Amino acid sequence: MRLIYTFFILLSLSDGFNPNSSGRCNCDSMQSVQCYRLKEVPSNIPSTTKRLYISHSKIQHLQLSDFNQMLALEDFILLASGTESVENDIFKTLGTWKTLELWKNKLRQVPSALPASLEVLILNDNSINSLMLDGNNMEAIAGPLLENNKLHLIPGSFFTSLQSFQFLSFSGNFLTKVPINLPKSLLSLKMERNQLRMVEFQDMKHLENLSHLYLSENLLSSINGAQQLTNLTTLELSPNQLEMLPFRLPVKLQKLDCSNNLIQKVTAQDFQDLRDLKHLFLDNNIVSFFEAGVLQRCSQLSNLALEQNLLLSIPLRLPGTLARLDLKGNAIRDISEREVRDIKELHVLNLRNNKISALDLKALDSLPRLRHLYLDGNPWNCTCSLLKAREVLMAKGTDVRGGQCATPAEWQGESWMSSKKIMRQCEHHLHLTEKSKETKKKSKPEDPSSIRINMDDDDYDYEID
């Protein structure tokens, strides 16, 4: 019986299309319909349908008659269909709706008289250039998404009666200021890819619940006053035009991304009370000075990204909690035991594209948990003594990437980690001491499943635990 019922639903759908329409509709279940390449919203959709998804169509205008028979509809998604306008008050009588998604269309304004039952409103990738309440009741919505539109200004009065929003995203617009009078209930605010030149944190201090603030890809040259957001855990500022780190950051911060800026130095005052900081991104700046011990109070720091800067050496007295350290693309010439003796929990060390030609055995001994070492792009001087470092790394179970010889000429291009040619010529140097043998027996590689990092490459997603 169920198959027969489904057949009649499909038959009714096909009979309901405009004869000149070349589109198709399919029933995923008895309550969900998916359509594409239509010229209008299909008639004769079963009255029990709860979800209607239409994509890649040519539906220029939505009107009330399109939905008269859809009495049970809860979710309406219209994607990439060239829709320019919506009839006034079309949604006023649609009291069952929970989701309205109008992605990638040509809307110039937010539809009016939205149903009070609406919980999800997504209007990304349209041409919306102004915000007006216009009779809308948005109290049930967790937060409208208005990314990639043409907003230049959000009126201060817009949020007066909308104080229950938890999430707001205005990324990809033309805003020059963070909106004022934001809802106190806000947990996350996305303002990336706008034209912000400054942020007035004084106007945001009432956001005592805000935990995530995204300000990447703007024109910010400085950040001051962020400590007023007392519960902020994530602050993203990449890329902007910052010449120094933000001053006085919120003490509960767990992730700070200041990559792709113009920061030149890192000093102790920048990280005085950030004991909860776990992830710090300072890559792609012009950092040449990194004060010793600057991060020692960051007692939970596990990931530090310093690649593509101007550092001449590994920063001293880094926190012992570090699991990953990225130093690719600096001007580091060597690795000393003094520089790495405090980071015994380090699992991943990325030293690609530096100026290192040799490895200090004492430094390697100071990294007992090192599992991944990236060394390509360095001018290795492949003496037989360098192969002793190979033995130490093999005994640890460290996965080494790279290590091509630059000198001497006869070994140029060979890998000192795997070249049989080098090993034959240095065979008389390659005897392990009894101590080294004991180290190999005792140092069993850690179960990779217990290390939460991507083993494939040096780029991976840093997630807050």
TrEMBL record:
Bias (Acidic residues): 456-465
Pfam families: LRR_8
One Gene Ontology CC term in the entry: interstitial matrix
GO biological process, one term: negative regulation of transforming growth factor beta receptor signaling pathway
UniProt region (Disordered), positions on chain: 433-465
Record keywords, A-Z: Leucine-rich repeat, Repeat, Signal
InterPro entries noted in UniProt: Leu-rich_rpt, Leu-rich_rpt_typical-subtyp, LRR_dom_sf, SLRP
Signal peptide region: 1-16
Listed name of the protein: Nephrocan
Organism, scientific name: Saimiri boliviensis boliviensis (Bolivian squirrel monkey)
